[in-house]
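Lecture notes, structural biology module. Today: joint structure prediction for complexes of two components.
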Amino acid sequence: MSSSTELDNSTYYVPEQGWYPVFLAFGLMLLVTGLAGFLNDIKNGSAGGWTQSIIGFLVVSFVLYSWFSKVVEENAAGMNNATLKKSYVWGMGWFIFSEVMFFAAFFGALFYVRALVVPWLGGEGDKGIIGDYLWPAFESTWPVVANPNAELFINPGESMASPGVTNWGAYLPFYNTVILLTSSVTIHFAHDAIKAENRKKLIGWLAVTVVLGIIFLILQVEEYIHAYAVLGLTLDSGIYGSTFFLLTGFHGFHVTMGTFIIFVQLIRAIKGHFTANDCFGFESASWYWHFVDVVWVGLFIFVYVL
Amino acid sequence: MSEIIHADHHDDHAHGPAKGILRWLYTTNHKDIGTLYLWFSLAMFFIGGAMALVIRTELFQPGLQFIEPAFFNQMTTNHGLIMVFGAIMPAFVGLANWLIPMQVGAPDMALPRMNNLSFWILPFAFSMMISTLFMEGGGPNFGWTFYAPLSTTYAPDSVTYFIFAVHLMGASSIMGSINIIATILNMRAPGMTLMKMPMFVWTWLITAYLLIAVMPVLAGAVTMMLFDIHFNTSFFNAAGGGDPVMFQHIFWFFGHPEVYIMILPAFGIVSHIIPTFARKRLFGYTSMVYAVASIAFLSFIVWAHHMFTVGMPLAGQLFFMYSTMLIAVPTGVKVFNWIATMWRGSMTFETPMLFAIAFVVLFTIGGLSGIMLAITPADYQYHDTYFVVAHFHYVLVPGALFSIIAAVYFWIPKWTGKMYDESLGKLHFWLSFIGVNVTFFPQHFSGLAGMPRRIPDYALQFADFNMISSIGAFIFGFSQLFFLYVLIKTIRSGKPAVGRAWEGAKGLEWVLPSPAPYHSFTYPPEVTDKESYA
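The predicted structure, tokenised, for the full assembly:
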């Protein structure tokens, strides 16, 4: 609830008109129509062109850079009052909630498939009779390594499932879990350093966090290469591959974004932008990072271990 | 006046709007953005409406007369998508933009630049979507619910553009909602506690929460479609261990809250208009708030009542039947409260009040047919018939749309400083009221008799009802062109309106002069009991 004393409309800052939003919308449209055209070209067997998507991406990047620079500049000039700062906090909080719901869709798909669809296809449960008619040979197992129709969806050789706790010493996702959990702690140390106004420490812990994020990503790429080249586990190898790659892939995309955002905070820390009471950029980045971390814990449990 | 005060503080950026088109492209003002949203939604309403008239023209008589079945499918699909995402939702966001800062006593929305981004994404997204109609293979033709595998395996190529357009609309809605929540929770005038907020603000707070909760799920659904189409994943393909029915579950987990997103702000609007013209306080304010919250909660656990016939386990059918029927309880509370507000009030029947009363009556008809559809065994007969079409058009047209029109008549004096012509407004109401009932009431009968929806031809036995329905559709459609005329006439030559344009109106927006100043409140206003509906 807003406390009434903080609302001071006489110093409320309504930003002047700006070109950022409309150009950002335009850039987004260029980006996605370019991407759609490219995907359709590939699907129809011709070589797709990247040019439009790249122009769109550059427009989006340029606008975001200008927009964020402007916001940082305005804050430094003292234009943001307490009310606006609180609005930023609300904004980031609800944005993270929307991200939670995005992942919820994919987790929901995973649970629905595991709990209902695959057993039904294997002839078990309430609707098992359907599976018996369609693919009588299909056995309900998770991970699905033998698809109902192995001609349309080539069976993966192996899955990514956990080999049992005792074998985690050679299990890459376990190391990734350790790395990401550690990075959540290091960014917390960075937060402590801001509160203590210790810039050296702040820069150090932020740098460690960025490095951990990059290591995580490298290992994740390594895992994907292993999946494609050795295990035969691909996007088109049935429902296990579909859920595995979309869940870990979107998580990996978020780690990439998060690492980049923290890297930006690192640069801002080096420039000396943050004070103990004025560090929203850093704090929102760290909330985002914790969120990405929590998603990974969910992934590790439900995609890899169970 | 307030602009001058404002300018004293920030003379570098507090001048009025820039001139020409750049004002609209670059604006950060909640009123400008609200205006953009409202005109955009009106344009989309006419485009979607034209598509509806194409449909009704083809259905005027049995047989295929005017258009090919493939094009008919594209019309039903795009009519639905445009009306839902292009007309109703942006209209409510436009109203939120105009009204919420005024009603909570704030100078503007919490995040003004993001506000502008939320709007400007929409014209681009809808250009993308409408352009699919001119692409090779035609536009989306799988119904607004885009069930897999129609929308994946058997979809035209243009579906890729449709998917990205949905992503963009979702981003726009999420940003708009974040802005609305931040404004409501953070920028209320001192003394405006949550339980003193105007009902429109309350309903939008809950609507925005619903939007942030479900738009990402829709994004997830279309993303899975994208991967199924282009990367050969098997989310919605049983041959790879997926399930097309899973698409329906994910879609309706979004879709059911979505239909409440289109009606909750309408509840808020009606809760302003009825007390104003009954000259009484809103009956049962607290129960109204709790009813809206309960409806929002229930909307998350009823989704599969759209899918009774797909082959769900019995336990699922029973759960979704009973949870759906529960919604009738809070909705009944609201209808009761509106009627109790009118009870022994000193009522007058200006145009907004006429639309609001029509809303209560006709929305209730739509709600009651909803209870019929909720009964699982009966739904086996009604499913995918014109009965469903009649049901949801009763809640969306004389429901959501009437509330938007009522809101425009009610607040246009505040927006423009001019009063609309009362007799023209009343004429518009009666034309719309007759048109909408002539269009949709017969569809209950053809549906109960078994006429399937989304089919360009039908059996001879349905001919009379369809002809009546088509005549009604044209009456309704053209009376909305008359609405446009009334609007333009008001803006150009309406009589000047006073600050409190309606003597019975309460709320902070009526304290401001008409038209409202460019920045609503420069200093926090005092929230008195006199201005409170609560």
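Point to remember: Helices of chain A lie at 20-43, 51-76, 82-121, 128-134, 172-195, 199-231, 238-271, 280-305.
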